[in-house]
Design a protein that fits this description.
The chain is an alpha/beta fold. Helices cover 43% and strands 21% of the residues. It has ten helices and seven strands. Strands 3-2-1-4-5-7-6 form a seven-stranded mixed β-sheet, with helices on both faces. The radius of gyration is 18 Å and the shape is globular. The termini are far apart.
């Protein structure tokens, strides 16, 4: 799945369970970093667009924020709601919905976020415009996108393993039309009406105790690879898994740090 591909719920429905269980390994540090751009106060009201299983919203609720989370995938929202209940958070409201047509009134929220979600919208300008619409004057928006996969040692390791089972697998190449391009990212935020826009990179390092753990974590939390698994069937997927893990056993030394980088677009709604 690439940026600009029309988004349907099905891939995210399929990956929801793995995303909830394995996604935090890589995505958790990015969610924590996103909150550093916003000075949340007790009872700050925020919106989390394309919220997934709620890593950001749960962290914001820990800081006392009132969170409104929305995602296209009902299973994602189900996992988010269950996690909020388990943590005892009563300030998270989650619902199924489209980030390109938000069901909130104008100028409602003190801050808005979309972590690795808006980047996939078929109509990104509409997504940015809707986020801008529901934010109050002076509010901050934080949107993230992956940097090019070729710059990530984590993605290079993953796709190197994929080629062991499927020689046609290829590392995604940079796309200058996507939010991987900081100039495009900034231009789209400014066109939506955000001011003081900055695009900043943030790199996270992750370690895995084994080749098996690396493969399991990355494939179970990847929508495209979960869809691929569904398409090829369990027997073929197991063959590819065996080949990939065998490759990683040679190429990855346990507990070696691998890095991946995201771009953070941060903008403000003009105060007047």
């Amino acid at each position: 799945m690439s940026e600009g591909t029309p988004v349907t719920a099905q891939p995210w429905d399929l990956v929801a369970e793995g995303y909830a269980e394995a996604g935090a390994t890589v995505l958790g540090p990015f969610a924590a970093h996103a909150l550093e751009y916003v000075g949340l106060e007790k009872d700050s009201e925020i919106v989390d667009v394309a919220a997934g299983t709620g890593l950001l919203g749960l962290a914001a609720a820990e800081q006392g924020a009132r969170v409104h989370a929305i995602d296209l995938s009902a299973p994602m929202i189900k996992h988010l709601t269950a996690a909020a209940e388990l943590a005892g958070h009563t300030t998270i409201t989650a619902q199924v919905g489209d980030g390109q047509d938000l069901p909130y009134e104008d100028a409602r929220f003190d801050a808005g976020f979309s972590l690795f979600g808006l980047m996939f919208f078929a109509d990104r300008p509409k997504g940015f415009a809707e986020l801008r619409r529901v934010l109050r004057p002076g509010a901050t928006a934080v949107v993230t996108s992956w940097a090019p996969a070729v710059d990530s040692s984590l993605m290079r390791a993953l796709f190197g393993a994929l080629t062991a089972g499927d020689p046609n697998a290829a590392l995604p190449q940079p796309d200058a039309r996507s939010l991987e391009n900081p100039a495009v990212f900034e231009a789209e935020m400014r066109a939506a009406g955000f001011d003081e826009v900055t695009i900043r990179s943030h790199t996270v390092e992750v370690c895995f105790p084994s080749a098996e753990a690396l493969w399991d974590t990355m494939t179970r939390s990847s929508a495209p690879l979960t869809v691929l698994r569904h398409e090829v069937g369990e027997e073929e997927w197991q063959r590819r898994t065996d080949a990939a893990v065998e490759r990683l056993t040679v190429t990855y030394r346990p507990n070696t740090p691998l890095h991946t980088t995201a771009l953070f677009g941060v903008g403000a709604v003009p105060a007047s």
